Amino acid sequence: MRFSGTEELFERRTLPLGDMARFLRQVHIDGPLLGCLLLICSLGLIVLYSAVGENLDLWRQQCVRLSIGLTALFVVAQVPPGVMRRWSPWGYAAGLLLLAMVLLKGEVGQGAQRWLDLGVRFQPSEIMKLAVPMVAAWYLHDRQLPPHASQLLVIALLIALPTVMIAVQPDLGTAILIAMAGLSVVVLAGMSFRLMIALGLMSVPGAWLLWHFMHDYQRQRVLMLLDPESDPLGAGYNIIQSKIAIGSGGLFGKGWTNGSQAQLEFLPERDTDFIFAVMGEELGLFGVLSLLGLYMFVVGRGLFIAIQARDTFGRLLAGSVSLTFFVYVFVNTAMVTGIVPVVGIPLPLVSFGGTSMVTLMAGFGILMSIHTHRKLVPQ
Amino acid sequence: MRLIAPIKDHHRETRLFFARVFLASAFCVALLGVVIARLVQLQVFDYQHFTEKSLGNRVRIEALPPNRGLIYDRKGRIIAENLPAYQLELIPEQVPDVEDTLRRLAGLKLIEPEDISRFAELSRRGPRFKPVTLRFRMTDDEISKFAIQRPRFPGVDFQPRLVRHYPYGDLAAHVIGYVGALSAADLERVDPAAYAGTAHTGKTGVEFFNEDKLHGETGYRQIVTNARGRQVAADSRGLTQTLLESESPQPGENLYLSLDLDLQRIATAALKGRRGSVVAIDPSNGEILALVSAPSFDPNAFALGMSTSEYNVLQFDLNQPLFNRAVRGNYPPGSLIKPMLALAALETGATNLTRRTFCRGFYTLPGSTHRYRDWRPQGHGELDLHDAIAQSCDVYFYEISREIGIEAMHTYLTQFGLGSETGVDIVGEKKGLVPSREWKRQAFSDRPNQVWFPGETVIASIGQGYMLATPLQLAHATATLAMRGKRFRPHLVAATENPITRERDLTVPEELPGVAIENEFYWQSVLDAMHAVMQSETGTARASGLGAPYSMAGKSGTAQVFSVAQEEKYNEDDVEERLRDHALFIAFAPLDEPQIAVAVVVENGSSGSRVAAPIARRVMNQYLGFGDAI
What we know:
The complex is a heterodimer of chains A (379) and B (630). Chain A is built from 15 helices and 3 strands. Chain A has 379 residues and is mainly alpha-helical. A 3-stranded antiparallel beta sheet of chain A has the order 1-2-3. Chain B starts with 9 loop residues before the first helix and ends in a 7-residue tail after the last helix. Chains A and B meet through α8, α11, α12, α13 and α14 of A and α1 and α2 of B.
């Protein structure tokens, strides 16, 4: 036994801030992670203020959402990982049920059936963003890693079921995120590289198949990525304007609230999916690199928490939450800069909108719970 | 099947997990590298390219229309000006329900119900922020009526704009022409860039012919717009650090016409509401002093835009007010050509001043029984060329016609400017017709008709048959007579004026090839005969020459609208008004130093000397400073 107890550990590690650290640990909050999240949110609010055209009403709405999200983070952080693990299958089952309800009687918005009104109007797919990695981690928790093929098949089914249900809503962006969340669990659990390569090769005919099941607007988005100039006022408009916005921002940007692309409404969806372009235009390369730096710190801290976790469930879940967050960041920035097709994924913690904010914050709550509830002595 | 559950190997799992996290981190860093590389590419390497694109997105060039040149008459009275007028405009994007709004405006009688669909279509087509003009000029009553109701009409308002205005209304409509909304057809004719900000263009008359001078040069300025193309205030944001360029529009040139509005008014009044035309020319330089085509129309209606029904009223009016009779009306010149033929006959030796003929009231060609009647059934008795002109004896000219021949007639009449465009500075001029053998060969497709018959020469000698001339051509020919063969191209624009420097550029009279008759004595004799028409005891128009304090010369003409059968007698009381003969008259004064030449055509006026001649007299009186006396 190297350490006698928690007290000693904290005194040794964070001596100058000892009292603060002790308090945070008691309320199950990870200081560095929270601090970085707050920095991102602050930066996000600044950019958003400009992106909504200095509309204070909309800006306040976002502040309220952030507060709700931070509350969710705090509440989830208090739940011990063991409780989470035991409740994982039930949460997953409930999520599936709600998804089924969405498909049967959900509300239609913007051509997709995503919403469910059960007193509170929400998207059940959001639950799945956390429920899928949780149930995968729960399934692997007691099993020897790396998982066997049969176990992988079970997990594949657990992932595929909600993914398909969400993809047909249709909500390709969320479906991809959920699949990535589940996939990251098995990758971290040690799925063999040979299998990964095999799956990768299979994805070629898979993509061909997918193309046939895609909606026209989704196909358009893929085509637009290949040649956005082919339809400059139609489907390619978003990408062209977004690239102009970012490119014309240069190193230092045109100045906050001075982005002509954003302020004169050339940039579509400037406060939601394309807010990264607003930032690139107004704050320039240094602005967006700062934000990416903060994001990477969050991902790094999450992976650090995963490494520090003492049991399989905690490790896999923390790792998955962190990597999913990265996928969020990557897909959004890559689509706004025209590297990948436009899929409706907002820039986490910055884009205007409440649905994903709570889920994201809850995810960080899970990370903090895992980190602060761990028994410091290996079992 | 596994019988014993494997015991978890924690160290192995931990190693495996660490390795995987490390790999995942590396993967993340790689992907992030791709994004950063992309950002660097966009923001550093392609910065210039995207900056230009961004600028091109928001900076738009707005055309500034020039002020149209003004038009004055010869005494400096303004005939066409630009007046501020309140226009009723609708901005589609600010109107919740366009159709409903238009219906309610029609209810207030601010627009015509029949135009609702047209305006609704216009509102849908253009950019949503661009105003649609519903009414070009609102009266004070309409403005106050609308002002009270304005809160009920969001997105509809009245705006001051410059509108072309013709203060004299229909007085010189056929001369000035009018401007109208720029159409697709107009845009094919003009340079669209030069007309980028212009809403109106000249459609007919002086306004059309001098469009280049009147229009001016379009200026431009750069404005900042948002994605929907709407202008944003340049200083409300720091979006306009780049210098916005602009260039002021150059106003169009002012035109001074040779037209005398007093003369125009007298001529119009003298026509007393009949259909017809009066053209007065200064023989010494070709300046057109009056150009009347009656009935006329109000050109302001065109400048302001008409409803379809208003236009149809003009279009289908039996009296054809839109038809410019002065330059487009082809009339048989009748006896008006006699002085010119007399000159041709003297020059070719077909007759001389002493030859006398006995007029019995009709003429027959040798070997034919067909009677070519004189206008005076009982005949003129024995007379010479002088009397033949003064009394307008047809038989005398029938007789000498064979000796002149149609070819010589054609040659000399053409030298007076008949049968071809005068080249006046308004478009649409008709060229009339002076027949010849060659013309007939080409005009008819069937052989029997291509032959020139001797009888056709006979009737050509009194300006009937195929012969046609416009009032402008007749006035021009009269001026040529007055100038004894010297011809000047008729024109309306006497000077152009630079609106800024006030520098004037006077139009130099353009002399045309004259009449090839050198003998002064011939001219003197024929002009004397024309003088006798008005100021002798036997002249056909002696009533109109009576008591004039100046000398004048003239010639009456009466042109058949339909031919009278051999046995019938023409009795004007029996003939329907529109089938009566046209009354024509030409005159010039004073005899020695001619200052004005006039041609008058009164459609279905029956008698040139009784109906048309007094009109010519009034016009000459006015111009020569004897007011409207007599």
